[in-house]
Amino acid sequence: MELPAGFKEKYVALLGESESDKLFEALQADERKAYRLNTLKDSDKVTYSKNMPVPEIKQAYYGEINGTDPEWVSGLVYSQDPSAMFPAHVAQVRLGEKVLDLCAAPGGKSTGLGEALEGKGILVSNEISATRVKALRENIERWGIANALITNNDSATLAKKFPNYFDTILVDAPCSGEGMFRKSQEAIDYWNQDYVITCQNRQKEILVEADKMLKPGGKLVYSTCTFSPEEDEEIVAWLVNDLNYKIEPIEFISSDKISHGHPEWADENLPELAETLRFWPQDNLGEGQFVAVLTKNGEFVEVSEKKKKKNLANKNKLSAQELSYVADVLEKFNLPATLQDWKAKLCLSNGHVFLPVIAPNDLKGIKVINNGLELGLLKKNRFEPGHQLAMVLGDVKQEQVVDLANKEEFDKYLHGETVNVTSKVKGFSLVSYQGMIFSFGKVTGNGVLKNFYPKGLRK
């Protein structure tokens, strides 16, 4: 690749001739690919090689996966740049926390955060792009996460809805993308120093709104996929000096493939900038990445919730008859913990039956893509289970399953075709291949498996 002249001049000045040559040489090499295993599911069936673990990240390995393999479509693996695995990892979220992934698409970090929460607490995954939020929803759904609110808003709109709300916020900020040069020619073509400063200003705007949503004492994880000090150390110094944050050491990370921040590139009066993490391609872990963990100073002040109007209390609830339609389907399956008390929480909106992670009446004024776990659709005198329910049911062992016999049947099903099966199972059933659940189907009396794999996911 032909690197921009201004980029090369910049990093020769910052790194010196020897180190900058290593960077430029590494940017000419192939990218390193890796994947994570989904610990929410039984991943013993995964056939990919586990011979090369990613340093510091449990259940992550170098290797390339295929988006049409059963491991992917069943949500057992996620393809992710190994460096990009670290922001969610260093967040160290705890069970029961309220967590925000503010710039979340396509979902690698959200799946990591949701996996760590283990269904306890709340994950809000927001993406401002109406196009990219679709991939975010697909990936969270495939991962079997039931406690996520997926939104499509700018940070200012979200901040009005969630003041002082979150225990942890991850901001993987839009940036100049220097760390993606090996993966994206577009990032190279678009690069210039003016764009770096534009990104820096946008990052500050986003972080001002994130600050409004974080509880005092809460944790902010800031990351980018760029090498630029203007977007990395300088932003962290600004958070400390202007917004009263404190840089936290990331002491549990010790790999020699990970470097540290440079106080001299931003503010020499903040030696704690050396506690931030830098990932350089010449260190051979993955692509370029920067990560910092900070805490917000101050004492938490409880924010009183607005009183809910009484006439809205049962607006989204199902009737007894509607509940019976849902029960007729669910009683065939083993339910994970997130579904044990489903009758008490179930809501209905435009035919969609769902278990909200946040009460729908509390979300007016923001664009919601998915709230918690969507079970399916109520139709005339019946309930039709949905794809997200299939992926969540796949988190526990099931008996009401049709396992496709071979790759040909699997490919046909992914394509949206019906399959003839020999099975004692009748009616709605989970569908798997090689023991990996990836969809709902419906077995008719003559042994035809009707296809319920979503049209938008068909290969």
From TrEMBL:
S-adenosyl-L-methionine binds at C103, A104, A105, P106, G107, G108, K109, E127, D154, D172. One of its GO terms (molecular function) is RNA binding. It comes from the Bacteria. CDD domains: AdoMet_MTases (cd02440), RsmF_methylt_CTD1 (cd21147). Pfam families: Methyltr_RsmB-F, Methyltr_RsmF_N, Methyltranf_PUA, RsmF_methylt_CI. The active site is at C225 (nucleophile). Its EC number is 2.1.1.-. One of its GO terms (biological process) is RNA methylation. Belongs to the class I-like SAM-binding methyltransferase superfamily. RsmB/NOP family. This is NOL1/NOP2/sun family protein.
